[in-house]
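Trying the structure run again after the queue cleared.
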Amino acid sequence: MGRVVAAAVYSAGKKVTNISLDEGAQWARKADHFVWIGLEQPNAEELANLQRQFGLHELAIEDALEKHSRPKLETFGDALFIVTYSPVRQDGKLEFIETHIFAGNGYIITARNGHSASYALVRQRCEARPLLLDHGEDFVLYALLDFVTENYQPVSESIHAEIEALERNVLGGALHEEDTSSACTACAVTCCACAATWRPWWKSAKSCSAWTSRSSTRTCAPTSVTCKSTSTGRWKTWAP
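Done. Tokens:
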């Protein structure tokens, strides 16, 4: 059974009242009113109920039930169906939590399939700005997508910080293949940008004519390599 996080009706930029799922359509038909329903992991019965009330397209419902769709925006007449993903990073693992958004005349419905940041914060922000909320479901849709985009910033910043730390280790001291390869592999799992930054340098270093074997374990390093920092743009000669 899914969970109704929140369901309310709005008019003139203000919240009118909380509602049940069964009351959605009757409020949405009222002039200058719209309903905003937030669900977490809804089941087939709940989606079928909303489909009957709001005339949601069967292909959109099919995608919502199957989950794991690609990110997309589809139009069905004057209605929109959006699949978007929010990043969640815990214990070094990066996951993307899928959300489906149904938007049309008089309604906006979100169905979140996982434990990403709650859209309750979006609702609080919108309710605190009645002049913008008076624009109706259009403003709510904008606020939801802006929130999803906002969630990418701390994740990208943390990955960038790890890449910079790896870069400092490479350029600031002796390079040992077993250390850098394990660190790079960890970064590459969470962000392909790490691989794009690291592998061209690794390839050029290995092709250097000064490449030598330093021990019987075949830990190799160039006797000297000149590298350019991707973060500072400065060149540095590294000599183990």
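The mean pLDDT is 77. Worth checking whether this holds up in the mutant runs.
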